[in-house]
Amino acid sequence: MYNSTKNSGGQIANTIIVPMIVVVLISVLGIFGVMYWSANLSDETAEQSQHHLLSGALKLTQNYMVKQQTGVVIWDEAYWMVNDPDPDSNWIYNNMMNWLFLHHGFNRSILVGKNFDIQNVYARNRSENWMTPELLDELTPAIAKVRARYITSFHKMPSGLYSYMPKGIEAHQSIAETGVLALEGEPYLFSAAAVVPQIQSITTTRTPPVVLVSMVPLRGQKLNDISEMSRLDSFVLAPMQTGRAGVGRFQLRSPRGENVGVIAWQTSQPGSQMLQRINPFLALAAFMIAAVVIAVTIFTRQMTKRLARSEAKAVQAARHDALSGLPNRSRFHTMLTQSVQESVVKGTNIAVVYIDLDHFKDINDTLGHSAGDKVIVAVAERLHRVIPKTGVVARISGDEFAMVIRDCKDDEWLEYILDQVQDEISRPIKIGSRELFASLSLGVSVAPRDGNDPDELLRKADIALYDAKANGRNRRSFFEPTMEHHVQSKDKMSRELRLALRNDELELAYQPQSDTDAKRIVSVEALARWTKEDGTIVSPAQFIPVAEETGLINDLGLWVLNKACAKAHDWPGVTVSVNVSPNQFKHPRFVEKVMAILAANNLPPQRLEIEVTESVFAGRNDSVLKALRRLKNLGVKVALDDFGSGYSSLSYLRRFPFDTLKIDRDFVSDMNGNPEAEAILVSIIQLGKALGMTIVAEGIETLEQIRFLQAHRCHRMQGFFISKPLSDRALGQFLDDFHGTTGSGFGADLSYQPIAAKG
Q1: Which DSSP category does 94 fall into?
Q2: φ, ψ for residue 342 (rounded to 5)?
Q3: What is the pLDDT of residues 158-178, one digit of tens each?
Q4: If you average pLDDT over residues 226-237, what whole number do you get?
Q5: Looking at the DSSP assignment, which residues form a beta bridge with residue 575?
Q6: pLDDT mean over 682-705
Q7: DSSP bridge partners of 538
Q8: Is the link from the previous residue into 388 a cis peptide, with omega within 30 of 0?
Q9: What are the tens digits of pLDDT across the range 238-250?
Q10: Under a CB-based contact definition with an 8 Å cutoff, are residues 138 and 255 in contact?
Q11: Dist CA 679 CA 662 (whole Å)
Q12: DSSP string, 680-739
């Protein structure tokens, strides 16, 4: 009995312990295997990163060569000389080719004519036998690209002439191609650039350019520069290099794809180094794990299944969106990172698609959040159904989704997939008895074309999505570098504008408004002006929209209001008119801030006129109307600007009693000799008078317009004919001249001519 129990106990112990030992051994071996695999992968990734560093350093060196070449290829005198039927070879030798050698080390140069003929050959030792037909053949693809880009930079105008408008380059940059070629058995860097005049304007025909090709040996200083930029060890240049562990290789190829040489370096191996450090600890940990596993086998056996079930549920909840069941933002980022790493290893393309459900807020506002949730679920199911099996779709936030599409063959194939996505979403979604129609805006970035960093791909897809939404929604946009430039330019202007406001670097200009008889200035409109420290003038059409988008419009608007009210004391009896943005009315204490500014400057509210456009009534109409009524009741005048430019201006006249009606300048500019335009203008004047409003006509530029408006008793007139916007000092002088004893306004015969602003 005892022996039987003992044997039975031993069998049970063996049943538990022996498999456990086997599992531990396999696990330890597996850990070592995974560590070795991870180390190798880390070494490969490090080598790839170093390869990218070397490629970037080489590209920077080539780009710098293009800049060095700019001094002689963008030069009027050089352009006329190389295009002369009988060019002066000595001039070209000394002022172009030898100059490039003396200043930038280009020791070989050739000048290729419009017909692909060799016009000049340069070498420091004045030899020409190095210039062979085979070398010209190697350079032909690069020269052809330069010629093609130059010709396509001329765009035909309606007149039949061609205007030089190159794309993708700044005015001070040249049209150039760079590369590597073999010359006398040695790798040379070259830059091929079109010789163009400094100022291109108009031409009758498009002809190929003369192309200057300048070369410099890669071995020597250039190789040292690339080594320093990339910070790689044991940098060597060789005709060829066999594959060896720990040695990285960068293959140099000519424009026709021929092998030119190999740059080799000693690669860092972080994985192998890490493995050597942690191997003893791994071995010790393996033994400890085995001991612990044996000790707790009985207990853990009972708890394993229960814990596994709990863990699976927790992982599912942590990685997936509760409503749609799709992966959430965190899980999507992980899957995207894995996909990018796999695509780098395989050499395939992947697309990252940012998706925004158009006008989803309207669904929540009209049908409630329950209906909105059903729409989200329906969209998630359709996206999951239509995406390729290897793809990933996730819900990022409320109405935003994202996709990863692996193994993209080309843009045409990707367009086809995205067409299916949009077609699937455009089908009606049934919510109870209702049919809802949804649409998507999509932003797309593609790796490796747009980079291989997951965060960068997401950011660029988001930029492309912004472009799609800004251009009408229900469409898609592929990321382009110009989009990023636009975003960066807007961000730069926003930061500069914030600093300018903080340092009080902006200025105000004031445009006068005369009375009906053109004998008295009754009002001035305050206009923000920005001139940077370097003298660059930034148009309000540029910085006002940026202020609107970034929220700076509140600070800018209050700054303008405060400056205008402070200066109003210099012009007694003149009303100061200030434009107010729709976004300013969203501030809960806007009215209080206006009154505080009036009080701080001791200016009666009746001398301030606030100009608004009908766009302030979009959305929260009641709050805007309430704020306007409060200002009006406090004595501030309220003007409706650009009347007639919107489709519903009459309804706003009925809903709010404006003090002033400013007629859109288009009506004034169109009335010259146009009976219909004049009839509309007269109708607007009569309408405003019937409603008891002061009528202001903008954009007056001719004497005939003045006479017409006087004939119909328009209350105020504003425009360049009366005066351009003036600085506060120039406005003071203008008012003195206009109202002084020697001046009489425009006079009864309208003979007054505006005096140029001083200062």
Answers
A1: I
A2: -65, -40
A3: 888 888 777 655 545 688 999
A4: 78
A5: 523
A6: 92
A7: 530
A8: no
A9: 777 666 777 878 8
A10: yes
A11: 17
A12: HHHHHHHHHHHTTPEEEE----SHHHHHHHHHTT-SEEESTTT---B-HHHHHHHHHHHH
